[in-house]
Amino acid sequence: MNEQAKSNQLSPQVTDYVTAAARAVLGMVPFAGSLLAELAGTIVPNQRIDRIAKFAEAIESKLSNLEQDFVRSQLTNEHFTDLLEEGMRQAARSLSDERREYIANLIATSLSSEDIEYIESKHLLRILGEINDIEVIWLRFYLVPTIGGDGAFRRKHEGILEPVVATLGAPPEIHEKAALQESYKEHLTQLRLLQHKYRTDIETRLPDFDSFTGEMEVQGYQITPLGRLLLRYVGLADRKE
């Protein structure tokens, strides 16, 4: 038997072993684990099982306020299973407990919300998958942009939120850090989670234009309704905010 044939023969065995291990680990989480175990074979046969186990624990705590019979009944809804499968894929790729919390919150909120459909929740989950943890923090920063507001959050993430100012005489690494920081905000703007605030003339109230680029001068950023919705679904904002 050649090496290719051996590989083809062993591949299903490895997949079966990892799938069984995933189901065993998930089975230790009473309710959510059993739900996710049903999908484990098709979603994460070769992914990090420990990440999925942590995700199961996170979503277990979120589902504690919901009727288990109701949650199980949603497994017959293909839009919900599609959402759950995408959540598992993202959880398997996640590198932080915070990210798994965001995903678990989004799925749990989708179950208890009457505002949007599962297919729309998956759209939010897809957007979440397009931004990194630093960008999530920046988005949350613009939820309360007032000077002196949201002190505890800003102190916790001071290392990320501290403005990087690149003056003309600043060393290259400062310019690089400033460019990175700006790119996070611009990426959030491209996804319609933030929008530009434009500088206006005090007297005319008309937009100011940059003399070099000819475009309207950007004064800053503000959160959009979509940005607020995403923050609410991942557990970083209340409905009233």
Would you spell out the secondary-structure blueprint of this structure?
Blueprint: H1 3-26, H2 32-43, H3 49-62, H4 68-73, H5 78-93, H6 97-112, H7 118-130, H8 133-141, H9 151-156, H10 158-161, H11 172-190, E1 194-198, E2 218-223, H12 225-233
Antiparallel strand pairs: 1-2
Structural notes for this entry:
There is one protein chain. By secondary structure, this protein is mainly alpha-helical. The chain folds into two domains: 3-130, no CATH class; 134-228, no CATH class. Helices cover 61% and strands 5% of the residues. The protein has helices at 3-26, 32-43, 49-62, 68-73, 78-93, 97-112, 118-130, 133-141, 151-156, 158-161, 172-190, 225-233, and strands at residues 194-198, 218-223. A two-stranded antiparallel ribbon has the order 1-2. α3 crosses α6 (97-112) and α8 crosses α11 (172-190). The protein is elongated, with a radius of gyration of 22 Å. Mean pLDDT is 80; it is low at 1-15.
